[in-house]
Amino acid sequence: MPTVPLPNLLAAAREGGYAVGYFEAWDSYSLEAVVEAAEAERSPVVLGFGCAMVDGAWLDGGGIEFLAGMATHAAERTTVPVSVLFNETHTLEQAQRGVEAGFSAAMVDTCEMPESEARRVVAELTRWAHQRGAAVEGELGHLPNFTGTTVDTSGSHLTEPDEAGEFVRATGVDCLAVSVGNVHLLEGNEASLQLDRLGAVGQAAGVPLVLHGGTGLSAGALPAVIAGGVAKINVGTGLKRAFLQAMREALCRDASPHDLLGSHKPVDAAVAGKIKMRDEVQRLMHLYGSAGRAGS
Ligand code: 13P
What we know:
By secondary structure, this protein is α/β, with parallel strands linked by helices.
C-alpha cells in the first residue's frame, strides 16, 4: 500500500477517537516487529527511525539513506495505512535528506536550539517539505529526561497554551509535540500528566497533538489524553528493553554463530527480540485504540 500522508493518518485517528503509535525502530528486525504487529492487529501505524540516540557522523555518512531505504521498502509491503517518519534529526539538513530519501514526514530535534532559531528551522523545514508533499512535526516545550534514578528537569519546560496557536501558524507544522508532564525514557514509573494544560493546548493549536515519552504513559491516562487532542504517541525505550531482554536470553543458547546472528530463523537472537517487541507493540495498539481501524 502506498504511504498515507501523516496529516491524513492523524486526522483519521482524531475522527475515530484513537491514537496511532510511532513505535521507533532502529534496525530491520525492529522495523519488522512494528510492521508485523500492525498487520496482525489491522492497525494504522507510523513507521520510522529516530536520530536522537544515533551517531551524527554515521547518519551523515549514508546512514540516512540506508534507514530511508529500509523504511520505505517496509511501508510499500504493508496492507495497512502507514506513514514513514524521520524523527528527531540533529539538523535541518538531515531532515531534508531524509525526506529526499523517501520519509513522508520529518521532525527536527530543536530542544538544544534557542527559541528563535528553533522557529526559523521548523518554519524553513515545513515550507520546504510541503513543496515535496511531506509533513512536519514541530515541538513546543521540552520534555525532561529520566536518568535511570531521577527525572532531570533542567532545560525542560512545559508547553504554554497561549503560545501554541501562534507557533503553529508561524511555522505551518502539521502536528505538534507537547510537554505536559510527559517524560522521555521513563521506565518503572508513570508520568503525571497535566490534562487541563493538554486540553487547552489542543484547543489553541488547531492541529493534532503528539506525546513523546510513550514508555512512561499510564494506560489509565490514555482515554483523557486522546480526548485532549493527542493523535500520535511515540514509544521507544520500552520497546528496546523488551527486545534486549529476549535477545539476551536467546544469546545464552548453545547454537552456531550463523544460526544466532543473521539467520532470520527462529533460533536467531534478534528474531527472539523481534517477537517480544511485536507482542509489546500489539499490546499498545489495543491500548491506543488503533487495533482493527485499518479495515480487513
Ligand atoms: P520513550 O523512549 O520515553 O518511550 O520516548 C520515545 C520518544 O518519544 C521518541 O520520540
